[in-house]
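Course assignment 3, question 2. Fill in each field.
Student: A.L.
Task: Predict the tertiary structure for the chain below.
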Amino acid sequence: IDYSRFDWDEVNNNPFFCADPVAAKEWATYLDGIRKEGSSVGAVIEVVAENVPVGLGAPVYGKLDQDLASAMMSINAVKAVEIGAGFEAAELTGVENADEMRAGQERPYFLSNHAGGILGGISNGDPVVVRFAVKPTSSILVSRQTVDEKNQNADIITKGRHDPCVGIRAVPVGEAMMALVLADHLLRHRAQTGREGGIGHE
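Answer field:
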């Protein structure tokens, strides 16, 4: 994703927490139509944590990406989680997916971030990128086929409060989950090494 085209100041200026004001307006129109139809839609939310210390996590048990995936999957309505390139990595070759490195003035750096800031279960200093998908709200105003308590065919319509997309409310929840997991791993790292930050940080 080309993050340079986004205006991060716009995130708090629309109900979608969207850094693209044009997309936010399109979503508002689309979602209003879905609401009037009495239906619902799902969403994909991306959460990015920058300046994560190098060395958080473990290679086998307590992997950073493992704990992030578990945390995101614990959020209501979440049906899928991906780290970095995620499912797109299955379409890439090894040459395309490899995050090449070069020597920097202070430390090595990566030329890309398909790994989403985590290699071998351990943070590598790049932004940690997690995306999760939420399903469409199941309580809709459109009649659906079901079965009653007597195992008889029936139809059901959910009346009352109608939320056409829970993905909007899931944004701050995902951010909080990311923060909790990273804080947990920072504390684990301090307990194991006596250091406040990641590798090389006192």
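Instructor remarks: The two ends are 33 Å apart (CA to CA). The chain has four helices and nine strands.
Grade: pending
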